Amino acid sequence: MAAPAVTPEAPVDPVPARRFPRSVALRSAGAVLAGGLLYASSPPRELWWLAPIAFALLAGVLWGRRARAGFGYGLLFGLAYLLPLLFWLEHFLGSGFGPWPWLALSLVEALLIAVAATGMAVVSRLPLAPVWMAAVYVSGDFLRSSFPLNGFPWGRAAFTQPEGPYLALAAFGGSALVGFAVVLTGCALAALARGRFPAIALVVLPLLAGLLAWPSVGVLAQNGTVTVALVQGNAPDAGLALMDRIGEIRANHLARTRQLVEDIRENRVPRPDLVVWPETATDLGRSAAQDAELDEVLRTLGVPALIGARLTNEDGTTSNVTVAWSPVTGRGAVYAKQELVPFSEYVPLRSAARFFTPFVDGFRDMTPGTGNSFQQVGKVPLGVGICYEVAYDRVLAEATAAGAQLLVVPTNNAWFGRTEMTEQQLAMSRLRAVEHGRAVLVTATSGVSAVVMPDGSVTRRTELFNSDVLVAAVPLRSATTLATRLGGWPQGIAVAIAVAALLLCAASALRRRSAARAGSNG
User: Which member of 90, 387, 420, 505 is catalytic?
Assistant: First the structure.
């Protein structure tokens, strides 16, 4: 039987490969460049003017895009910004855990920025789009400052502005208004580039408002001045090994304080009215002999002091505190840090946390404080924001509203070596000075310690990893700024504007879908 004839099959055209659209590639590159520019605008660089340009580029990328595209471009922007900004975390934990803590935190924060970028893309179709886009981004900053685990405020738009005209707006609306002004300028520049020429008013208005606000930023010593001495005893640049070197840090600060006593006796420096130690410069409560040694040094000094310490509580837990210390009566009122650092000062999700933090096995969570951070030290009414707390709006705001005439930020940045972390934190203190119209004393174990005036200017500062004392006269002020009186209202208004704009877009989309269905059924 003959085999059936085989008919050759017609050649099948190969499925054309899907090309990556050139426009997507360009927008992706634009988002990455925008994030890089925002990082470049951040301290220690004084390139504040790059921040509006960064947001102009981001707005140009997002304009008219769908929500899904906005999320993708926002994620690229967030990673390009946060990976270099938070690289100090790699220095801190990288030796023991590799890059994973740094990468994980950067990714989580970038995802939250991507959520804000999604909203920016959606509201870009509305009239006056720059206003709504700026409100959405600032609301995203608020989201990152609140969630998850009470948030991580690092990298907010306002913190790029320790210099320049926008800083003055902090006295009127705090970090929310400063951030809104920066983003609004950038988004308005993008609108102008798209031919929306009336947007030039929105470019000029935030800059003009900042320039006009400067004369009203209060700097006068309404209640006289006090001479302060900030003790920077120094700490070893030892990374994670610093956990076992608290005794060395304590000895350094005791020695530097004894040197201050000698300098006062020899008239090399004026006698201060207040002495401030940095965050966790000593242990307290573990040893009565150690407490007595510190008390003896401070009695010899003869002036009130504010001592940053790790305090052992009666139940065996510890707290990160500042202690008001009298040269006559010794230990006084204690303020315990409220905004504890997740995975460092307390550890959630312990079963998983040991893979990226050393503060698990053998460590107990610190006990947070309550109330506000107002402390009376001698004759000086002051407010305290311990290290990480300066990034949160409420801590120093509540202390100022309670009557603080001077603000203090004790910190221990020795963990982070010679990275940019300490300069980023100093920028926050400069913004808080203008926000509340108060001088701010930044005192660090290993630097940078600084004296910040109520206009945000730095008059004295130390270098990293050396022993030093800053002695300076600073003003006491009791007038409260509009930002202090308003509290969280400026941020709340920005969130309300953003939500209203997003709801308007959602309602418009529903109407279009209803109309389309009605047309197809007709």
Answer: 387
pTM over 0.85? The answer is yes
Q: Could you give the CA distance from residue 34 to residue 14 in angstroms, rounded to a whole number?
A: 39
8 Å CB contact between 161 and 186: no
CA distance 357 to 93: 7
With contact defined as beta carbons under 8 Å apart, do 70 and 117 qualify?
yes
Instruction: State whether residue 308 is helix, strand or coil.
Output: strand
- 85 sits in which H/E element: helix 67-85
Rounded to the nearest 5°, which phi and psi values hold at 123? -80, -5
> What is the β-pairing status of strands 274-276 and 225-232?
parallel
**What sign has the CA pseudo-torsion 492, 495, 497, 499?**
negative
Q: Is the pLDDT of residue 520 over 80?
A: no
Q: Is 146 exposed, middle or buried (0-12, 13-18, 19+ CB in 10 A)?
A: middle
Distance, in Å, from the CA atom of 174 to the CA atom of 156, rounded to the nearest integer, reads 12
Query: Active-site residue 279, yes or no?
Result: yes
Question: Is 505 an annotated catalytic residue?
Answer: no
Residue with tokens 């040893």: 287
DSSP 251-288: HHHHHHHHHHHHHHHTTSSPPPSEEE--TT-SEESS-H
Q: Is the separation of the CB atoms in 138 and 166 below 8 Å?
A: no
Neighbours of 172 (CB within 10 A): 20
Quick one: pLDDT at residue 458? 98
410 to 70, 198, 233, 384, 460: CA distances (angstroms): 40, 47, 13, 8, 16
**CA 462 distance to own-chain centroid:** 21
259, 432, 411: which is closest to 322 by C-alpha?
Answer: 411
With beta carbons less than 8 A apart as the criterion, state whether 107 and 86 touch. no
Q: 326: which 2 tokens? A: 């009298």
Check 90, 109, 163, 279 and give the catalytic one: 279
- Assign 68 to helix, strand or coil: helix
64: left (phi over 0), alpha (psi -120 to 50) or beta: left
Q: Which 3 state secondary structure label does DSSP give 41?
A: coil
Q: Using one digit for the tens of pLDDT, what is the confidence trace for 115-130?
A: 999 999 999 999 999 9
* Choice among 337, 339, 345, 435 that is catalytic: 337
pLDDT in tens, 5-29: 444 444 444 545 556 688 999 999 9
Cα 78 off chain centre by: 15
Token reading at 80: 């390009």
Our measurement of the distance from residue 243's CA atom to the centroid of its chain's CA atoms, rounded to an integer in Å, reads 24
